[in-house]
């Protein structure tokens, strides 16, 4: 089994091989740009998941921080077995569809 180096350090590389052309480890998909650590909140789509993550922004007028959430659709290769509620690392890639420009790289513990 040959796993490609994607340029982003990952601890949990997939143990099985897949034939997905949009897999960053076994296919030809290149990852670049931003990476996020988030939680899967929906896995109802075929080979896609919705990932949510929290971040804070500053409100200078009130000198406070505000908590926000973002949700984004990401492609999940079949060699990464992640379910709803799992923490995952996603990375930016080329647009895969109208709303998918991210791919799941690893399932974190």
Can you lay out the helices and strands and say which pair or pack?
Elements: E1 31-42, E2 48-59, E3 64-75, E4 87-93, E5 102-108
Antiparallel strand pairs: 1-2, 1-4, 2-3, 4-5
Q: How would you portray this structure in words?
A:
The protein is mainly β. The protein has one domain (31-108): OB fold (Dihydrolipoamide Acetyltransferase, E2P) (Beta Barrel), CATH 2.40.50.1000. Helix content is 0%, strand content 46%. It has a five-stranded antiparallel β-sheet with strand order 3-2-1-4-5, with no helix packed on it. The chain is elongated. The model has no long low-confidence stretch (mean pLDDT 91).
Short description:
This protein is mostly beta strands and 109 residues long. Helices cover 0% and strands 46% of the residues.
Integer tally of domains:
1
The ordered string of helix (H) and strand (E) elements is: EEEEE
- In percent, how helical is the residue content? under 10%
Estimate the mean pLDDT confidence: 91
Low-confidence stretches: none
CATH topology: OB fold (Dihydrolipoamide Acetyltransferase, E2P)
SS strand fraction: over 45%
Radius of gyration over C-alpha positions, nearest whole angstrom: 15 Å
CATH architecture: Beta Barrel
CATH top level label: Mainly Beta
What's the shape? elongated
Assign the structural class, choosing from mainly alpha, mainly beta, alpha/beta, alpha+beta, or little secondary structure: mainly beta
Strand order in the sheet with the most strands: 3-2-1-4-5
How many separate helices? 0
Number of strands: 5
**Distance between the ends:** 24 Å
Largest sheet: 5 strands, antiparallel
């Amino acid at each position: 089994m040959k796993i490609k180096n994607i340029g982003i350090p990952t601890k949990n590389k997939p143990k099985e091989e897949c034939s997905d052309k949009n897999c960053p480890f076994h296919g030809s998909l290149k990852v670049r740009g931003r990476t996020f650590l988030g939680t899967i909140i929906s896995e109802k789509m075929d080979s896609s998941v919705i990932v949510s993550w929290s971040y804070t922004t500053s409100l200078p007028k009130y000198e406070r921080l505000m908590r926000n959430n973002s949700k984004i659709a990401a492609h999940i290769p079949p060699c990464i077995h992640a379910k709803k509620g799992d923490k995952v690392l996603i990375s930016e890639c080329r647009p895969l569809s109208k709303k998918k420009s991210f791919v799941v790289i690893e399932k974190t513990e």
